[in-house]
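[Automated response] Your request has been received and processed.

Submitted sequence:
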Amino acid sequence: MSLSASNLQKPVLLTIVAVSTLTSGIVNLFWGFIMSATAFGTILGIVCLPLTVLPMVLGIVEIVHAARLLSAQPQPVQPSTAIAVLEVVCILFGNVFSMIVGILALVFYNDLTVKDYFIRLNGSQPHTENTRSTTPSTELPVQSNPEGMIPLPGEINIQEMKEKIKPPAPRKVARK
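Generated structure:
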């Protein structure tokens, strides 16, 4: 049973992430413009001007990613945890809204319905926990305790350990 990309129903959580990422992108663009305009007001701000451009760049990337998520024709796209992490880092620029959006995006990207949507959209098989093959193994048998190796917990012989450990030599005390 093959599903075409146009028949896929977007999960509500993905729509929430896309709309909030778009909103965060717009906020970051304005936030960057405001920070840049403020930076021009001082001499120290002119030196720090490249830092004020970072929220604007993130805003542009957020808008492009959100547009791909919201498009009517679904495009093969992966969840961008990197954008979500950068949104969380925006708290360093005083942008609390982007931090909240980033946290929500990270949480919603880990939802099973969202993960399943991206798997079906991209046409890849879901990653299973058991990665072993069902074919017989051709591995060589492992020796229980080769010479010179540390013994396993069940193989420790206490009597042998006592014989190997030498008691400390008695100390000589200096007399006056």
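Summary generated for your ticket: Residues 7-122 form one domain. The chain is about 55% helix and 0% strand.
If you did not submit this request, please reply to this message.
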